[in-house]
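Marked as duplicate of an earlier ticket. Keeping the data here for the record.
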Amino acid sequence: MASARLLNSKSHLIPGKLKVSELIFEVPKDYTNPERGTIQLFARSVIRQEKPATVPSEEDIRKKAQKPYFVYLQGGPGFGCPPPQNSWITNAILDRGYQMLYLDQRGTGLSTPISAATLALQGDTHRQADYLKLFRADSIVRDCEAVRKTLTAEYPIELKKWSVFGQSFGGFCILTYLSFYPQGLREAFTSGGLAPVGKTTDQVYKATFQKVIERNKAYYTVRCTLFGGSHYGNRHLWFEKWLLISRLQKYPEDVETVQSLCFHIKAKGGLALPSGGKLTVRGLLTLGRAFGAHGGLDVVHDLILRCNTDLAQFQFITRPTLSALESALTFDDNVIYAVLHEAIYCQGIASNWSAERVGRKLTQFQWLVGSPQSAAAVRDGPLYFSGEMIFPFLFDIFPELEKLAQVADIIANYTGWPDLYDESQLARNEVPLYSATYIDDMYVDYDLAQDTAKLVKNCKQFITNSMYHDAIRSKTDLVLKELFALRDDSID
């Protein structure tokens, strides 16, 4: 495979003694048919900027800059990388002797970004869908390999391979990388990123819906925590302590609050959002995608509380609250996520809107049946929020997604997806893989992840039930400590 063509490189010093280089590459749009043209990739490399005691020679400068690369692949799909100075892992990785590369995956960030307007340049809906088919993990890892060959062309042989780190969907990409281009990798790390290799979209959503149900119960239910051991010499004192702890649990009062809010939205026929979209009952109930992150239950409660407070004072929901709701709900700025989310699991079959089909069969998600303001959504008992699922109705309520509804339907019904993984190659994998795996992960099911771990030779895991999917952001130092311990420690 050819290397990428470096079009532009500019370097800047930023606070914290970091030197950041902004890089623009040109790569084939379609690696199987280079005649289809090119797209651009944007990346930022970052190294420590040190002030030497003596004036170094050009050769010394060149060698000092040639540190092993550590490449960060963002979760998603459809999200670009943060600037290095704003990333939670930059300093920790540089301290371990690497230089970092933050690569905006194709179609995200500054890498020929995809929006309804840029997609329209491709032509009709079928041409737009054909273009989007080129933005899955198989193309992303080809981009990585093309960029690696360019950046390490003048490096000594021992530095030509690089290390990769994948958060969530970034980890999915790494399993594709290990399947088809392991020769480019020195080592690989994932956090919440062991993809469900060999599983269908229906199998994925049957598993993740159960995790969403668990998180809804945690959101709504008063749970009692009992002390073990001593009664502190006083049974009455121990009982009072137990009562105090039981009151510190989550949000049972939101059972009624969410019902009332849904009745309000239904009575109004939906609420106009600042961007021009329309908040429906079903749209509101997709807020649960936040449940899988640290503090996610509190994020959702805060939004529900804001709505309830507005209604109590004014009998309508204020613009600031509607803006906050819209920000939490919409994918108008990240359309790849909405259009390709189910396709990231597909190999040779169509997803056919799997999340909706699976969810409609579950009692807790009967609000997926019927009209956007269906009375089935507003019922006795807790209304369960959905999780990291994309439903066709989202393309009716957000303006940018509405323009892509036909394209999304073509993608959902496409059966020609190529393989994303080579299980025989994974079974003989020689590249060390170190994975942080979360038992209570709402987005990447733990049991499916364990099935994958059994398929991949040389995979070591840090497994915990004390962290959630976003732990690399919320508990950065702890996760990195455990991952590098897997690399550096021997069990024999």
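See parent ticket for discussion. Residues 85 and 91 are 9 Å apart (CA to CA).
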